[in-house]
Amino acid sequence: MRPLTALAVASLALATALPAAEPRARDLGIPFDFGAPGPLNAITDVPGVEVGQVTLVEGAHVRTGVTAVLPRGRGDAARRPAFAGYFSLNGNGEMTGLPWLEEAGVLDGPVLVTNTNSVGVVRDAVIAYAARRWPVAGDGWTVWSLPVVAETWDGGLNDIYGMHVKAEHAWQALDRASGGPVAEGNVGGGTGMVCFEWKCGIGTASRALGKTSGGYTVGVLVQANFGARYQARVAGVPVGQEIGGGRRGREETGSIIVVVATDAPLLPHQLKRLARRAALGLARTGSVAGNGSGDLFVAFSTANPEAGAAEGVVDLKMLPNDRMDRLFEATVGATEEAIVNALVAGRTMTGHDGRTVPSIDHAQLQAVLRKYGRLAR
Hints:
The protein is an alpha+beta fold. It has 8 helices and 14 strands. It is 25% helix and 23% strand.
């Protein structure tokens, strides 16, 4: 594989140096429903799940990147498919690999998110990465040949037709994936993304179910890039209308990718049900999934490690449907919080053609919530 260019090295150094943004939504006193978060309040609270990100910020025009979510981490277990399901709330977007995911009910590898025009190069890079890591067998087959790669449009801040995301950036995101805290806001695939006409990007959250509900964890990661200012709601409060600004009469456009992870033993049809619930978390922030929006959600379970077994009869575990309500609540709550975390973590950015997108003012946001009696402290 090609050596990294000087630009790539500089960009990767920036990516790996970025910590999780402070403060997060809860640090501002924003209240959230549907249970308590896990220790990190991140998708990596689900055991085994790892996240890697590469952030590309260079000169006046490059504002983009790649985020990778590995259901079973980077080790040998990465070759094991995970049961999965997906849901399209509005299909003006792209997520590759869905026909096989729908047919077989498995996610055969990682989920990567990037900008719209870079889906092809990232998809090809994932296949090349797998072929290098697990050499092609005698029958010409290798793992990860139908990867799941999704996108949202960052053309407002990024020179999206410059095709700045290269294969090595996807490889680096995969190689650098780890557990632990997940950086949010202007990072990875979310580097150039915008929500409700404020700077936004990557966000994550989790919910830890109590022992009476199985002790399972639900984690969510979003790449958020949607919404008109007047639609924005935080903790049920119409903050977009209260704060004002934005372009008057603007139609809701943009997109969001939601990745839902859980260690609950769910089968593919149940994971499709879980993926649908991400739409309710999205709606709680004010989105109506407009005609120009690509709202695509995928959910996977890290349980049932033999989900992709090729031979024999496989013994599987399944949570009864009647026990899924707490998982539904957790998905709705974690999706909503992940979006708000992405919004809070966003930092004012100037990019392509001198365009500037401001971050939401934290003090102003708190003042509005206080006015409605919704500030937790």
